[in-house]
């Protein structure tokens, strides 16, 4: 994990400009974008040598105050701070079973009972575990299909046509996998998924190299569905507290909107 910690810190240092951090450059040309190590160290109030050791994975005794100082210097958001914590203190990560996931029958019943929203249940490796009829129809899937949603995003051409802002969708998928990998570093199946995507998708490899970290629990997503056309849907993602990593995702349209009419039409076409 120390190697991943260093890669993450370097990616965030490279993404932060001196102007954003209030670091004076005095007009001096810079050979590389982002902040230098000594600039991050100065912003964090520590020696360059100490910060360099952390970034190179040679220091394993970061205190709360040091972690907070680095997070502040790099302007990390809440999701990135949590990721930093997991990378810095992997021994405190709660280990879970890493075999095939099972979703509770009561969760599936909740998803299937919704009639005015598209609902799917997604596992910690982004496997589709279940959903209602409209949820499968929105994704262009049969009710008996159980694909991995990250593979769908990066490897299925139809997803690029379905999701209007595909780049954002792809970044969200990679961001979730990045968080999941730090949460469960010993999950062999998750590591195999990430490795497979890195080999088969140049887009995944490109995005993964930037170390995206985010947990998208709500958003507005636009679809261009082959059966009913353009829809703007509000998405809410709820984590299941008794099954960490599993999420139930609701996608619905504003009442009275054209998208609501199209969503009802889609439901009627697949009923």
TrEMBL record:
- Stored PROSITE patterns: HTH_CROC1
Q: Which Pfam families does UniProt cross-reference here?
A: HTH_31, MLTR_LBD
Give the HTH cro/C1-type domain ranges. 34-81
Q: Name one GO molecular function term.
A: DNA binding
Which SMART domains does this UniProt record tie to the protein? HTH_XRE (SM00530)
What this protein is called in its record is: Helix-turn-helix transcriptional regulator
Task: Give the source species.
Answer: Umezawaea endophytica
List the taxonomic lineage: Bacteria, Bacillati, Actinomycetota, Actinomycetes, Pseudonocardiales
């Amino acid at each position: 994990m120390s190697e991943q910690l260093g890669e993450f810190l370097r990616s965030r240092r490279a993404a932060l400009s001196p102007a954003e951090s209030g670091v004076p450059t005095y007009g001096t040309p810079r050979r590389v974008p982002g902040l230098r190590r000594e600039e991050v160290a100065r912003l964090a109030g520590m020696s360059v040598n100490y910060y360099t050791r952390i970034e190179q994975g040679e220091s394993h005794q970061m205190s709360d105050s040091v972690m907070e100082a680095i997070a502040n210097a790099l302007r990390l958001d809440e999701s990135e701070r949590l990721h930093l914590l997991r990378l810095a203190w992997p021994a405190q990560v709660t280990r879970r079973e890493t075999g095939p996931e099972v979703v509770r029958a009561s969760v599936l019943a909740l998803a299937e009972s919704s009639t005015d929203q598209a609902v799917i249940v997604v596992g910690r490796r982004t496997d589709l575990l279940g959903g209602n009829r409209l949820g499968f129809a929105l994704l262009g899937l049969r009710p008996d299909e159980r694909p991995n949603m990250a593979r769908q995003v990066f490897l299925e051409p139809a997803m690029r046509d379905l999701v209007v802002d595909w780049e954002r969708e792809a970044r969200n998928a990679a961001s979730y996998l990045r968080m999941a990998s730090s949460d469960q570093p010993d999950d062999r199946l998750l590591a195999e998924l990430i490795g497979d995507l890195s080999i088969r998708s140049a887009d995944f490899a490109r995005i993964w190299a930037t170390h995206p970290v985010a947990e998208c629990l709500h958003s507005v997503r636009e679809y261009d569905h082959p059966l009913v056309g353009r829809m703007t849907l509000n998405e809410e993602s709820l984590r299941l507290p008794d099954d960490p990593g599993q999420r139930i995702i609701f996608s619905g349209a504003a009442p009275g909107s054209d998208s609501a009419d199209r969503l009802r039409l889609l439901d009627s076409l697949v009923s």
